Amino acid sequence: MTGKSPITQRTARHGSHKLCKFDLADLEWTNMIPECPTYHPSEYEFEHPLVYLQKIAPEASKYGICKIVSPIAASNPAAFVLMKEKKDFKFETNVQPLRLSKWNEKDIITFSMRGRKYTYHDFEVLANKAFFSRFHNSRDLPSSYVEKEFWHEMAHGEKGTVEYGVNVEGSAFSCDPNDRLGTSKWNLKNFSRLPQSLLRLVDRKIPGITDPMLYIGMLFSMFAWHVEDHYLYSINFHHSGANKTWYGVPGHAASQFEKTVLQHVYCNKIITKHGEDGAFKFLAQKTTMFPPNVILQHDVAVYKAVQKPGEFIITFPRAYHAGFSHVNFANGDWFSLGAAASMRYTHLKMMPLIPYEELLCKEAMLVFKSSRVRSSKNKPEDKTSYQAIMLPFVHLVQSYKTSLLRLNSSRKLPSSSNTTGSQICSLCYRDCYVAYFLCKYCFSHPICLFHDIAPQTCLCGRDYTIFKRNDIFALEEAAKSSQQGKECVDKFSLSSIFSCSRNDCIKDPEREKSVRGTASSLGAASKPKTKVADSTKHSVERNKSTMKHWRNNGLPSVRGTERPGIIYNLRKSKSKLI
Fold first, then answer.
1. For the domain that residue 95 is a member of, what is the CATH number?
2. Which helix (H) or strand (E) holds 49?
3. Taking the CB of residue 183, how many other CB atoms lie within 10 A of it?
4. Pair 43, 77 in one domain
5. Where are the beta strands (DSSP E) in 441-528?
6. Among 159, 337, 489, 512, which one is most buried in terms of CB atoms within 10 A?
């Protein structure tokens, strides 16, 4: 929301809320929401964005969001960039209803496109007119006053609408080599590609994740409650215009937030599946807007930020927020939450946007190679960043070993080398990098190795083959080398699985008993091949439209980039960042 007429750049979309559950007669609750922390880095600290963010993260992440005031300013304002540097710049807007939804089967708010493309100047004229018609002046107004006016309008509005330019590719950072902010590392066009960012390994542009997007709003343009895709960090920069109000819920309160939304916002009739995950899947549509007093009343922590031009907002992993995120990034400490997000996406059959498994393996191998060249005195086993990467990597390798051993105990598995990137499981949408089932003849409908009942034959009638990474044994070695791997990774070698028959593989009677028990459901279910194949076909056909994009383009692959030497500076006096 905005507090004066000039248009503003921001992110997200609008949604709504269950009217009968909200008491908005008294808006004094807006004064009860504490503000998130604000940081003022020096110009020296500002030169190293991810190092600085790691420094403040232990404190700032407790609030879910924080504000950073830039010590340097842009030489060229956003209006100049969008009207002079970007010739013929135009964008289309969403129309957003200014009211709260009851969120039942008869009242679910959706968005529609206006169908008209605006120049920056045309939309600025529209925004100024909307502001003046409501407040009858063009002066700045206190953010607290505008906040109350917004929620009052949402509570009593019926047919009012606002327009919001969403998902506009590009940014308003200047290309002028003399613009200090535009040439800094805080230019969001380059942020996800910084040496310390994990997303530097993704070799394809993903608008809104690896590349920034513009969001151009007016008075009361709004943004729905949501959590970032894959629980990533996000960063937003306010280029120009009025102040903007954010609400954030810290990641540790995310489950409590979802439970409150499920019980006090959505009607049960529209959440028919997925149980407690129903709220997560509905919120992922980014259409749900409701006042923060709903979660305040149920003891969910929530914080506020009033963002002014020239300020950045950071949202931390799994932090729900009503706000705008121009671009995402990830540090090494994200991997554990990334694993949880990946599992949740699989459970809900949601298409992943980034190849989590591939990112984890690539980064772990770079860490492994980096640690090998250092003396034992300087090995980083006790370093937080190292552990944050290696622990989920060790668990991933162990899960593959368990699955491969289970599968090989029930039948001999033909295998083939895989030199391509990640594949998407056609049954659950899991991204598969280490190994997966695939037909060697039609090369369609890949399936991950983690289904209790896995088909033995492809839809074309031929047997499935397990495709495995050429470097699968190197991945195993890397996992075993870490302290976590020594404690967690099964000493049974992957090479035994791929080089022996079932009888040759299992020498340990106790292990054989365990594997037989694990594989019993698979063995019992392997007889009715037609039934399993029919189920696979039904799932593939049902997901065909969603899978079309990935069949044509593939999941974004990951660069084989060398790890920058500065990242693992193991001197105790320096902070470590992945």
1. 2.60.120.650
2. helix 49-60
3. 17
4. yes
5. 464-469
6. 337
8 Å CB contact between 216 and 233? no
Q: What is the 3-state secondary structure (H, E, C) of 123-161?
A: HHHHHHHHHHHHHCCCCCCCHHHHHHHHHHHHHHCCCCE
Whether residue 343 is contained in a domain is answered as no
What per-residue confidence (pLDDT) applies to 578?
Answer: 23
Q: What is the rounded (10 degree) CA torsion for 553, 556, 559, 565? A: 160
> In this structure, are 325 and 384 located in the same domain?
no
Please tell me whether residues 75 and 109 are part of one structural domain: yes
Beta bridge partners of 417: 468
Number of domains in the chain: 2
Inter-residue contact 454 to 407 (CB < 8 Å): yes
pLDDT for the residue numbered 135: 86
Q: Domain for residue 11, yes or no? A: no
Distance CA 100, CA 158 (A): 9
Q: Using a cut of 0.85, tell me whether the model's pTM lies above it.
A: no
Mean pLDDT by 10 residues, the chain (578 residues): 38 36 73 96 95 94 97 92 87 88 71 79 90 81 89 84 87 92 93 88 85 90 89 92 92 93 79 69 81 92 95 94 61 86 90 91 89 56 72 92 82 70 90 90 87 77 86 90 66 60 38 38 35 40 47 54 29 26
Looking at the fold, whether 295 and 361 belong to one and the same domain comes out as: no
Rounded distance between C-alpha atoms, residue 174 and residue 239, angstroms: 11
- Burial of 242-255, coded b for 16+ CB within 10 Å and e otherwise, reads bbbbbbbbbbebbe
What is each CA distance from 268 to 271, 272, 279, 292, 360, in whole angstroms?
5, 7, 10, 21, 37
Running DSSP on this structure, what letter comes out for residue 460? T
Answer yes or no: do 260 and 155 share one domain: yes
353 and 286 Cβ atoms separated by less than 8 Å: no
pLDDT score at 315: 96
Does 574 reside within a domain?
no
Q: Are residues 88 and 174 in the same domain?
A: yes
Confidence (pLDDT) at 495: 63
Spell out the residues 6+ positions from residue 509 whose beta carbon is closer than 8 angstroms to its own: none
Which residue range is the domain that position 464 belongs to?
Answer: 356-484
Are 34 and 77 found together in one domain? yes
CA–CA distance from 67 to each of 9, 135, 543 (Å)? 16, 28, 41
Return phi, psi of residue 464, to 5°. Answer: -75, 150
Q: What confidence score (pLDDT) does residue 522 get?
A: 32
Yes or no: say if 56 and 62 are a contact pair by the CB < 8 Å rule. no
